[in-house]
Description:
Largest interface: A-B, 21 and 20 residues
Number of helices of chain A: 11
Largest sheet of chain A: 9 strands, mixed
Number of strands of chain B: 8
Distance between the termini of chain A: 48 Å
Structural class of chain A: alpha/beta
Radius of gyration of chain A: 18 Å
Oligomer: heterodimer
Bound molecules: zinc ion
Amino acid sequence: MIFSTKVGISGYGAYVPVYRVRDSEIERIWGGEGAPVEEKSVPGLDEDSLTMAFEAAREALTMSGVNREDVGAVLVGSESPPYAVKPSATVISEALGVTPKVIAIDMEFACKAGTTALILASALVASKAIKCGLAIGTDNAQAKPGDELEYTAGAGAAAFLISELSSDSVAEIECAFSYVTDTPDFWRREGEKYPRHTYRFTGEPAYFHHVISAAKGLMEEVGLKPSDFDYVVFHQPNVRFPLRAAQQLGFSTERVKPGIVCDKIGNTYAASSLIGLVRVLDQAKPGQRILVVSFGSGAGSDAISLVTREGVGKRRSSLSTLLERKIYVDYGAYTKLKGLLG
Amino acid sequence: MVWSESVPRFWRERARKYRLVGGRCRKCNSIVYPHRSVCPHCGAENMEPIELPRRGKVVTFSVVRHPPRGFEGKEPFLVAVIELENGARVLSQLVDVHPEDVKEGMEVVAVFRRYREQAPNGIIEYGIKFRPLK
Lengths: 342, 134
Ligand SMILES: [Zn+2]
């Protein structure tokens, strides 16, 4: 899809909690081997998907310099909201000071809701229904102790302030393409604490089919080819999957590596591809094209093409600081932080 | 800090808890947190709400090892007096740091966190805490 008027990112932000647990520490307890990432982020006892979303959104809003009253939408994509019923979007909007005249809503599509929030905020701005919109991807991923998901289930958030394209924009949102099917690779029923997944099924028919179809769909629709992109960012459930998706689509490893963060923070679910985009925007120069492809179980992918503008590089996010700021915890402290001690 | 399990009370206080809103006395210019209607310094009933700066320094701190109701399982945690960039003093939890690593004068920045849960099926109270800037 191509938006009816040109829209862009005027501010962006990310958040990663300070705590980390090494996969070698999880292996020490559960006896696994061949860890999918090096270490993963762990939220503090007083953090959840809502507090992380706020921190990323505040950074995006501050970077943009946009007036609070011009924020017409706060769209929060997450699969780990603190309440089953009561929106995170209202708390975040109130804390940002953008209430009450705002479209505020929580959105869920496993790890894909953040990029869908970005597409919808762009469409609302493009149609001139609102002046600016905030799109947020945030998750505090839960995994059953000892499950293979425990090695990667991380926590983090990313947020983007979308406005009409201007000379000050960080990047233009050029076009988007969504690809979804009913594929039961991963789910969590109401009232259940942990998700279930279908192991090997999560690869080919789920992740790779949707990521590759969305990326190809976007390039075919607007006549772009892999060599037109300077950077490509995929959903990062582990380090292997995005590298393999890049290879299958014909992108060199050098294009995908700059956006990979999951080796250091794990899989941040709805924030995963968006924190990757923040990482890329923090190092890009004006006039570069970026492809972002999310994946959400259930299943679907959003592919989004962006072109950086003059605003990129003038302001950077705090992500590189947050990636360096770490307190390592052992498995015992990890279970306390995860609330497993009751 | 006064804790109450009242949902209406938390709702009334949300702006000052979420956004670090204190009070400035229009008569003597003192800044207090949280906002109140009577100035504790000159007694004037002429206070206006003011959003406070998010950065400051630790003046003094204490480690809580026997938590009050609603904070069980979170111990040990830190409570600190923070002097903000405009001189206002705030009593707040200090997070993301081990008690042995805290120092007086340490630079801190406001973050948005969970205060407590009123009950496992109750309201989650959110608000401002501080973490080390570096
Ligand atoms: Zn006074």
